Amino acid sequence: MAKPRRPARLPRLRMRPPAPRPAPRPEERHKGGQLRAALRFAAVLAVTALAIPMQFLLRRLPGAWQAVAARGFGKVQCWLLGVRLHVVGQPAGGATLYVSNHCSWLDIPVLMARADARFVSKAELAHWPLFGLLARLGGTIFVSRKRNGLGDEAQAMAASLQAGHGLVLFPEGTTSDGSRVLPFRSSFFAVADQAARVQPVTIVYDRMGWLPTSRHDRPVFAWYGDMQPMTHLWRLLRRRGARATVVFHEPFDPGLMPDRKVMSAEVSAIIATSAAALRQNRPAVPLPAPLGGRFPAVLRLREDLTDAAALREGFAAARPSRHPIARSSAA
Question: Who is most buried in 62, 83, 184, 319, counting CB within 10 A?
């Protein structure tokens, strides 16, 4: 009688070792980052609390004192947050409509430290504790998402420009993740004809730990999605060596643009081109004003122009000499 065959033994399962976890950053590994964040947070609250009664007093003084106080407050806040400013170009001043990309709440103190202008913010900011009151004292114009209030808000923005105050717009309508510039909404340029000039502005946070930022570092600055404000602020306060580069491009007369859609497309092209160059760690260069619908064609030169000098010379050579802006600059 044949013996029954024994079942074949299955091979032993060999489990792969778990993948090693990435080493934590120095700020996350040591307690020094938490202590640094606590001290910075206390200083920010103290300065903000002191600024509120000062704003009440400055509202009774001429506008020049209010502008100086606002710039000083923005510079102090950036210093306390650990963000150095690298500014290229100069703000035009006066009744200028500043158009900027938007990736974080940090854009407001960064621009406040350099430009004498009021901000246009979402209506939810007015209900934030402490910061909402400070924004009201600073003359911020709050924009709601309801259509029935857009007429009054547009009148408030037009009145501010007609009074000679600068105005900062974020035409993206929301914050981005810092790796791209979102499409601009042309409806934000409805009050551009009330401004003496329009000046594109580019903001890129290009340093972290005194080194060029990577994709891993951008969420430290960018505030988007369902990020909690306090968690995002605490993460920023723990880091060191941060820098924001602000580029003020050449202003232009809004009357040169045929309509607000063309203006929105051209300003978006200027800001997106400059932001892409800064994210690639290229030199910051203020780009020239648009040419009434012909600027996107000139943007094809950016693939061949790599350094800052060639970039500026290429745009200057592409500008026709008969254009009104060229005649005024040559004079």
Answer: 184
- Separation between Cα atoms, residue 196 and residue 117, nearest integer Å: 14
In degrees rounded to 5, what are phi and psi of residue 53? -65, -30
Asked if 269 and 295 touch (Cβ cutoff 8 Å), the reply is yes
Torsional class of 293: left (φ above 0), alpha (ψ -120 to 50), beta (otherwise):
left
**Cα–Cα distance measured from residue 69 to residue 75, given in angstroms and rounded to the nearest whole number:** 10
DSSP 261: H
Contact between residue 36 and residue 43 where contact means Cβ atoms under 8 Å apart: no
Q: What is the value of pTM for the model shown?
A: 0.78
How far, in Å, CA of 325 to CA of 328, rounded?
5
Closest CA to 271 of 297, 253, 257, 250: 250
Q: At 168, which amino acid appears?
A: V
Residues 6+ apart with CB under 8 A from 154: 190, 191
Domain ranges of the chain: 29-291
Average of per-residue pLDDT values in the chain: 79
**What tens digit of pLDDT does each residue of 101-135 get?**
999 888 988 998 998 888 887 777 777 665 666 66
* Cα–Cα distance for residue pair 284/10, rounded to 1 Å: 64
The CATH class that applies to domain 29-291 reads alpha beta
Neighbours of 303 (CB within 10 A): 7
